[in-house]
Amino acid sequence: MMPLLIPIILILLFGFWLARRRSGIWQKVTIIVAVPIGAVAGGYCGSTICNHVMHLQGSGESHDDIIPIAASAMAGLLIGGLVLPLLCLLLTRKKIDQAR
Q1: pLDDT in tens, the chain (100 residues)
Q2: Which residues fall within 8 angstroms of residue 87, CB to CB, at 6 or more apart?
Q3: pTM of the model
Q4: How far apart are CA 85 and CA 40, in angstroms?
Q5: What is the residue-wise DSSP string for the chain?
Q6: Residue 10 CA, distance from chain mean position
Q7: Helix 25-56 crosses helix 66-91 at what angle (to 10 degrees)?
Q8: Nearest to 44 by CA among 66, 70, 63
């Protein structure tokens, strides 16, 4: 359980660090909420893609196949938990006045 908690804590700290870069409360909340949403979506997509690829290869029917599915879910969790907050950080920046 502990190896699973360390990346989750690091991703949450990364989200809080990104949220400190914005001044508005709704911008901060959007970035912080994007961390678990991105992690869940990434973990689901990673495990589902791995499961479908394994079934296409003719495997995926035994209990030994849970290790690659869990590993791809962890990779998707890490990628989704990092990419979605970065995307929210880019989308919440203030517009530069074009009249200058």
Answers
A1: 567 788 788 888 988 898 888 888 888 888 889 999 999 999 999 999 988 888 888 876 777 788 888 889 889 988 999 999 999 888 887 765 444 5
A2: 34
A3: 0.78
A4: 13
A5: -HHHHHHHHHHHHHHHHHHTT--SHHHHHHHHHHHHHHHHHHHHHHHHHHHHHHHHTT---SGGGHHHHHHHHHHHHHHHHHHHHHHHHHHTSPPPPTT-
A6: 12
A7: 150
A8: 70
| Structure tokens that stand for 18 in this block | 């990104």
Tokens of 94: 């203030």
Q: How long is the chain? A: 100
